Amino acid sequence: MKPRRSVLYMPGANERALEKAKTLPADALILDLEDAVAPDAKEAARERVCAAAASGEYGSREVTIRVNGLETEWHDADLRAAAQAGPAAVVVPKVNSARDVHNIERALELGGAPDDTKIWAMVETPTAMLHAEDIASASERLTVLVMGTNDLAKELHAEFVPGRAPLLGGLSLCLLAARATGKVILDGVYNDVKDLEGFEVECLQGRRFGFDGKTLIHPGQIEPCNRVFAPSEEEVAQARKIIDAFEEARKAGRGVVTVDGRMIENLHVDNAKRVLGLAEAIGALG
Questions:
Q1: Shortest CA distance to 54 belongs to which of 77, 21, 84?
Q2: Alpha carbon 81 to its chain's center
Q3: What's the rounded Cα separation, in Å, for the pair 48 and 14?
Q4: Extended strands (E) in the chain
Q5: How far is residue 141's CA from residue 24's CA, in Å, rounded to a whole number?
Q6: What sign has the CA pseudo-torsion 96, 97, 103, 106?
Q7: Spans of the chain below 70 pLDDT
């Protein structure tokens, strides 16, 4: 299990930002060639980002590259360069279909990408919401869905409101697709970097929904995000208690197990094991 609680976008045109990212406690980084880079800086940023991704200087952080979208003039060159750099993943904006995934996969293979360079598909349009399962199941190389909530809101003509009611339908469809196909899914960004209270509320909403983590746009968002998406000490202790009680009952031949007055079934044990697995993986990050 690989923790992806906090996944921070870093502007590919900013050399200082790429250097600073080596010290930030984010679980993963998205070195961005798309929105954060002006058109006349695309080529220089591509070279800088690919060198950073190939450097091995980011410790335990999972380093990915976000390329420009499929319909842009930079997309093909971005994919070729990323394939050679061999990051943990290539993040592709506005993936709308299984065919898009197949084209991305083929380009990576032709570019010589190693097998462990995965695809993270950004789902951020109504079309993507309605084809989320097809996208998620299109390739074994595709391992993560990334919600693009800003673009989704734009496409829906929706307002940004606390609780994100206008977006919940799309979020739910993508969560269902991710869980049905065994993929990781990351929540979208929170735009007000000064509103850490509102950000933490949205992190908690995302965790309760079932997201594995959240994409971030500012280093100040990392700490609360890591905290919210990690099991608490109480949750870890309860998970151990459930597993121990279930194992004791199994050895004694008892068919009914209760913990703190609540009946425990296999599904509770599976969830407890997931909690312990995540806690151990986070602990291994140091």
A1: 84
A2: 22
A3: 9
A4: 6-11, 28-32, 62-66, 89-92, 118-123, 142-147, 184-187, 213-216, 257-259, 262-264
A5: 27
A6: positive
A7: 255
Please report the pLDDT score of residue 126 as a whole number: 98
d(CA 124, CA 164): 15
| pLDDT value of residue 189 | 98
- Give the distance from CA 186 to its chain's centroid: 4
**Residue 12 CB partners (closer than 8 Å, separation 6+):** 18, 31, 32, 33, 36, 37, 45, 46, 48, 49, 65
Give pTM, 2 decimals. 0.95
Amino acid at 19: E
Residue 273 tokens, joined: 């094991």
Radius of gyration of the chain (CA): 20
pLDDT tens-digit map of 176-228:
999 999 999 999 999 999 999 999 999 999 999 999 999 999 999 999 999 99
Burial letters 171-210, b for 16+ CB under 10 A, else e? bebbbebbeebebbbbbbbbeeeeeeeebbbbbebbbeee
Residue 207 corresponds to which tokens in the numbers above?
């965790």
Single-letter amino acid code for the residue at 4: R
> Contact, 125 vs 155, CB < 8 A?
yes
Q: Nearest-CA neighbor of 264 among 247, 282, 283?
A: 247
Residue 135: phi and psi, rounded to 5, are: -65, -50
Looking at this protein, which amino acid is placed at residue 25? P
The tokens of 26 are what?
């984010």
Q: Tell me if 28 sits within 8 A of 61, measured CB to CB.
A: yes
In 3D space, the residue among 126, 60, 65, 75 whose CA is nearest the CA of residue 97 turns out to be 126
The per-residue pLDDT for 264 is: 84
Residue 69 identity (one-letter amino acid)? G
**DSSP for residue 36:** T
